[in-house]
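YM 10:42: SLC26A/SulP transporter domain-containing protein sequence, as discussed on the call
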Amino acid sequence: MNTQSSFSTLKHDVLAGTAVFLVALPLCLGIAHASGVDPFAGLLSGIIGGLVVAVLSGSRLSVSGPAAGLVVIVVDGIARLGGFSAFLLAVLLSGVIQFGFGMLKAGRFAAYVPSPVIKGMLAAIGVLLILKQFPIAVGQSATGAAVKSAALATPLGAISPTAVLITLLSLAILAGWETRALRRFAVVRIMPAPLAVVLLGIGATLTLKLVAPSLAPAAEGRVALPSLESFAALQAVLASADFGPQFTQLINPDIWRVAITIAIVASLETLLSLEAVEQIDPERRRAPPDRELKAQGVGNLIAGAIGGLPITSVIVRSSANVHAGGKTRTSAIVHGALLLVSVFALTSVINLIPLACLAAILIFTGFKLAKPSLFTGLARQGFAPFAPFIVTLVGVLVTDLLIGIVLGILCSMLFALYANLRGPIVLAQHGDHYLLSFRKDVSFLGKVPLKHYLQQIPDGATVIVDTTRADFVDHDVRELLDAFVADAPRREITVEVRNQVREQARASRGWSLRRTAAE
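YM 10:58: structure's back
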């Protein structure tokens, strides 16, 4: 590659990395707040995703960081384990498990997870995001108490008119930003929607402080990022008890349960994002999934060790990277570097962002994950895909993510089993001639219908057994058919087997059906 081409690529990557940073900053802060942890933990994960995972990843355009899809796991995990430090140990262990997935080349197994189950999982996450962010969107704390600013009493509790107005304006911006009417303006095409929402919030805070201080978002209703003036201050924060894993909990079975849940869900989300990025990449470059799992594992191991949230490859940031013209993984590294700089240089500005803005961003994200068209689209496809979707959705809402996913997979397996049982063997009759057709592969479950059909064949009949469409016939089924053929001469039944299972399979399994019973 010549110098001019290298400079052009670097230029595109720097611009794309800057655009991704502007998208990632509010998302990192919002996801951290939705998870009930220090905003710095969200930024820390974004930094690790850019400066560690991007370097190790085989994907040129994928961007990693904290994901809205893991908020539910973080909230439930912290509650289950009794604190953030114990949860960090689970994050660290999930990284080890993910790295193991990559070493075992488990990336290919994600393709076997049924699509309705994945959609059900994401829809459930969307519903939970909306429910958990609604109190913050109306100016309440996570516990439902109103923040210390002008509040109105309602049947839902005390709410802040300022927070409600900011939330509604933010949602209007997010919903309208991609419409054709607004895309005509250059500023809309250049500026990411989350950044526009954040700027709206900062502007509202500054304006209300000057014009109507009593209506301005109070300190507890805004981001509270610790002020860091040097790397020594950063090291002091990372060395504090709140940003270190609690290794004494290593033998706690709940730690491992949460770790496995994070590893599975984060790996699924990463591989789905990787596949989506490949589809929108102009050059259609394929990234090795197992290498990506190892990179994500290292990222989560580091995040757990120093106080970050779980990390995945995130499609929102990755698509922003593609659309901004990113060429190589340098763009993701630039985004991570800018997040690191923001921790030192933009603290005072970041702390002006109302939490209602971040809640609106997450509510909108939740709506996109659980949009009504997803439900209607799956319903139109039939009961077979819709049932696992609903089972997964309800399972996640009622129990937790891991159990919900397992229930959805079991439901899909039951439908697959039902489809396999449904008519693998068909018996047709014309006079005293019978045609026994194997329409597809026949498992041991086909033994029951086969026995039923063979009992219907009278003495003296002519039977044709057609296995043309079956590449596999279970041993139990073959034994039953062999017994029928062996007994056929006594009953004066003529049996002809047409195109049995393939020669190789027949030889290896020792199928000894005779061409006719008369031989």
